[in-house]
């Protein structure tokens, strides 16, 4: 392989076999190239060494950066773990416990009401008292028509008089809306009819001469009364201006003028009404409970 040399005068490349420079015509045999050849041979190894050192420096810097990032990450993770085991989990547990405590405060377990009268069969009218459970701002609501009581049902305020078969249901509700289970008891009331009532039913046309009691009786039955039979069938009895309408809300079973008799000496609370070929035994006792008994069945004031 021919070695290259350079013209000492102009610096142009010259083949080793050429004597004269092709650029300036200089006679190269007048010069000694031994030192230049050695210098060229030394330059290339030095250049390679410098490139290797530069590459090594860059690799070292990259490694330092990677190691530094790893060390910083480890320090951050270690710091978080130290904080967690020192205070973090305690704060977390307090937050969770606080939420649970608030829910527990709002969700109170309320015991159901209790009754003064046990379930069973009775041959006379009975009085039931409802005792509300312990707690703050608890109210008892009840029904006697078989439906489940809600906050819109009748509020218990005084003893309940039972004169006919009754299913008594009640539920306790506090100010936050927490509710107890429903307390349900069925009572069978079979009241023996008195001789006076029997006589009244036998002779319904016998009218009392006591005008005051008759007026009181009409006032007591005036209005619409809702009766729920044991089968669940609902009837409405409307006594108004001497006329009786018996309806289920869609069909009228009775719609005619009525006559009535009373049992004297009862302040116009007991009597019978005859209309359309039907005779109804009426008992308005006790007064003030917004209910009457029609043929022994409870009927609540509707409107």
TrEMBL record:
Domain Zinc-ribbon as annotated: residue spans: 6-26
Start and end residues of each GH29D-like beta-sandwich domain: 118-184
The entry's keywords: Membrane, Transmembrane, Transmembrane helix
Residue intervals passing through the bilayer: 63-85
Official protein name in the record: Uncharacterized protein
Organism: Acetobacterium woodii (strain ATCC 29683 / DSM 1030 / JCM 2381 / KCTC 1655 / WB1)
Taxonomic placement: Bacteria, Bacillati, Bacillota, Clostridia, Eubacteriales
């Amino acid at each position: 392989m021919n070695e290259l040399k350079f013209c000492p005068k102009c610096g142009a490349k010259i083949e080793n076999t050429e004597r004269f420079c092709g650029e300036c015509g200089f006679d190269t045999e007048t010069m000694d190239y031994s030192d230049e050849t050695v210098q060229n041979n030394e330059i290339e190894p030095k250049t390679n060494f410098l490139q290797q050192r530069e590459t090594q420096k860059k690799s070292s810097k990259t490694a330092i950066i990677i190691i530094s990032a790893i060390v910083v990450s480890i320090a951050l993770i270690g710091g978080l773990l130290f904080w967690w085991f020192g205070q973090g989990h305690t704060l977390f547990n307090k937050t969770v416990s606080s939420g649970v405590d608030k829910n527990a405060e709002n969700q109170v377990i309320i015991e159901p009401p209790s009754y003064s009268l046990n379930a069973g069969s009775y041959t006379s009218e009975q009085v039931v008292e409802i005792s509300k459970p312990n707690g703050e701002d608890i109210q008892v609501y009840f029904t006697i028509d078989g439906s489940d009581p809600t906050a819109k049902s009748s509020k218990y305020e005084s003893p309940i008089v039972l004169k006919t078969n009754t299913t008594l249901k009640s539920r306790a509700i506090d100010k936050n809306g927490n509710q107890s289970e429903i307390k349900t008891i069925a009572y069978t009331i079979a009241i023996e009819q008195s001789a006076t009532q029997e006589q009244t039913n036998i002779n319904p046309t016998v009218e009392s001469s006591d005008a005051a009691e008759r007026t009181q009786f009409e006032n007591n039955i005036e209005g619409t009364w809702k009766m729920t039979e044991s089968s669940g069938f609902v009837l409405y009895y409307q006594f108004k201006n001497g006329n009786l309408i018996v309806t289920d809300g869609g069909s009228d079973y009775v719609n005619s003028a009525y006559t009535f008799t009373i049992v004297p000496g009862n302040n116009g609370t007991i009597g019978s009404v005859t209309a359309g070929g039907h005779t109804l035994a009426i008992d308005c006792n006790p007064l003030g409970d917004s209910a009457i008994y029609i043929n022994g069945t409870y009927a609540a004031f509707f409107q």
